From TrEMBL:
Organism: Drosophila mojavensis
Short name of one Pfam family: Fibrinogen_C
InterPro entries, per the entry: Fibrinogen-like_C (IPR036056), Fibrinogen_a/b/g_C_1 (IPR014716), Fibrinogen_a/b/g_C_dom (IPR002181), Fibrinogen_C-term_domain (IPR050373), Fibrinogen_CS (IPR020837)
Upper taxonomic lineage: Eukaryota, Metazoa, Ecdysozoa, Arthropoda, Hexapoda
Xref: PROSITE patterns: FIBRINOGEN_C_1 (PS00514), FIBRINOGEN_C_2 (PS51406)
Name recorded for this polypeptide: Fibrinogen C-terminal domain-containing protein
Gene: Dmoj\GI20776
Length: 424
């Protein structure tokens, strides 16, 4: 509320309690009633002051400075009479005050304008701040953008890292596997080394055995009764030679197993023998002559078919003549066994090779015809030195043993001899 308004209200308030009458008579210096009224006015004003909380030296200003104050007269009806002139004077006083206050108002308005202009400068400041804020926000946006870019980069890097981690793990697993393999390999190598050592030891032992055998060379496999293996044999007027002993005194003279050795050979080779004693071989006709000449022998033939069937043939006398006799099958003795007696027709026949034809045919080379070497007659019912076939084959060139001239090839055969006195 403006000060001017206060003054107007004050006038109205002061009129009511004093109940001015229209016809007032001017009184001269009757203080007490005026005092009261003024005090009342003062009370009222104080009341107002309390509400507005503006302290105004109201009474003293209205009463004191103007000596020409209006005179009041209060009658029995408590009516205050004021002369018109006094009232005018009073009005004048108030008007002056009003003017004075208008000036104050103007002053205050100016102040307000000033303040408003200050507000304007505040606004400027605000604008400035807003501009700064905008700049800041822009920076923030830029920074936020950069930050999000960095985030992306970090994410990409994390992805790469995880990929590398996965690869690393895989490599580590691989390495572990390799290490394990390596360990296994090392173990295997150690094992093999140990085995090589054992074998080297055995070899040395075997060599020693052989040397011992040399000293104890025998004329048959009988002394190596229980031991199959390769042993040294010595006969009169003949250089010592190695033979394959089969156990129970048997000496192997011929063996077919797998076709690893070629048996289509000439006379000299059949005389001297060929092949490997622990594999396929033929002992040699000269040794057969020497062995059977030294003491009587029996013959055992073992035959295996491709279907697994096994058959045997025994002949209780076996003698081979000298080279000058063409290594003739001089004696065969009696046959027994569950195979056929397929040697019988070859009894008393000379040995034939493709380069030494001793067979009964004049117009056929039986060794050539049967692709082997045997005691051929017209030509053969057995052909154990024939061509090796890996499966059962019907061929006159094959290894066969049949009294009815059928040529089913055999899977494996073995011929062995033993001194007759070994029989008990
Ligand atoms: C004014 O106030 C005083 C005390 O504050 C009081 O004694 C007096 O009676 C009042 N006057 C009137 C006219 O009410
Ligand atoms: C006015 O205010 C004063 C002090 O604040 C107080 O003592 C007085 O009683 C008030 N008067 C009225 C009428 O409220
Ligand atoms: C400052 O100015 C604003 C806008 O012009 C106005 O809204 C506000 O009331 C003013 N403040 C004062 C104290 O004058
Ligand atoms: C900065 O920008 C981010 C995202 O736009 C927002 O969340 C944040 O409140 C801003 N900060 C300021 C101080 O403006
Ligand atoms: C493989 O094994 C050998 C012998 O045990 C060792 O010297 C080598 O360091 C191993 N290599 C790896 C990759 O483990
Ligand atoms: C194998 O074949 C022979 C001759 O064909 C036959 O006598 C024998 O029973 C057969 N054995 C088996 C086990 O099939
Ligand atoms: C033939 O006799 C041998 C030796 O006694 C035996 O091992 C084989 O099983 C016999 N074969 C047949 C088909 O009876
Ligand atoms: C508020 C004020 O200043 N009151 C004064 C009014 O005048 C009398 C005497 O004239 C003083 O006693 C008051 O203190």
């Amino acid at each position: 509320m403006k000060k001017g308004d206060l003054w107007i209200i004050l006038i109205i308030i002061s009129v009511i309690p004093c109940s001015f009458s229209a016809t007032v008579s001017v009184l001269k210096k009757k203080e007490p009633p005026v005092k009261d009224c003024i005090r009342d006015i003062k009370n009222k004003s104080e009341m107002c002051h309390n509400t507005t909380q503006i302290a105004v030296p109201l009474v003293n200003q209205t009463v004191t400075p103007k000596p020409k104050l209006a005179e009041f007269q209060i009658d029995a009806h408590k009516t205050i009479s004021i002369s018109k002139d006094d009232l005018n004077d009073l009005l004048d006083v108030y008007m002056d005050k009003l003017a004075e206050n208008a000036a104050t108002i103007q002053e205050k308005e100016n102040e307000i304008i000033k303040l408003q202009s200050g507000n304007k400068s505040d606004e400027d400041q605000l604008k400035k701040y807003q501009e700064q804020l905008e700049a800041c926000q822009m920076q923030n946006t830029t920074l936020t953008h950069t930050l999000s870019e960095r985030d992306e980069q970090i994410k990409a890097l994390q992805l790469k890292t995880s990929v590398y981690e996965t690869r690393l793990k895989r490599k580590q697993n691989l390495l572990a596997v390799h290490r394990k393999q390596n360990a296994t390999n090392a173990a295997t190598i150690n094992e093999l080394k140990a085995r090589v050592k054992v074998l080297a030891y055995k070899l040395r032992e075997r060599k020693d055995d052989l040397l011992a055998d040399w000293e104890a060379a025998t004329n048959s496999c009988l002394p190596h009764n229980k031991m199959s293996g390769i042993h040294l044999m010595e006969l009169p007027d003949f250089r010592p030679f190695l033979v394959a002993c089969e156990g129970n005194g048997w000496t192997v003279i011929q063996r077919r197993l797998d076709g690893s050795v070629n048996f289509y050979r000439n006379w000299n080779e059949y005389r001297n023998g060929f092949g490997k004693l622990n594999g396929e071989f033929f002992i040699g006709l000269e040794k057969l002559y020497r062995l059977t000449a030294f003491q009587p022998h029996e013959l055992f033939v073992s035959l295996r078919l491709f279907n697994g069937s096994h058959r045997v043939a025994f002949y209780d006398d076996f003698v081979i003549g000298s080279e000058t006799e063409g290594y003739e099958l001089k004696l065969l003795g009696h046959f027994h066994g569950n195979a056929s007696d397929a040697m019988r027709t070859h009894d008393k026949m000379k040995f034939s090779t493709y380069d030494r034809d001793h067979d009964e045919f004049t117009h056929i080379n039986c060794a050539e015809y049967h692709h082997g070497a045997w005691w051929y007659d017209f030509c053969s019912r057995s052909n154990l030195n024939g061509k090796y076939f890996k499966t059962q084959t019907d061929s006159e060139q094959g290894i066969f043993w049949d009294q009815w001239y059928s040529f089913k090839s055999l899977k494996s055969v073995q011929m062995q001899i033993r001194p007759k006195n070994a029989k008990t």
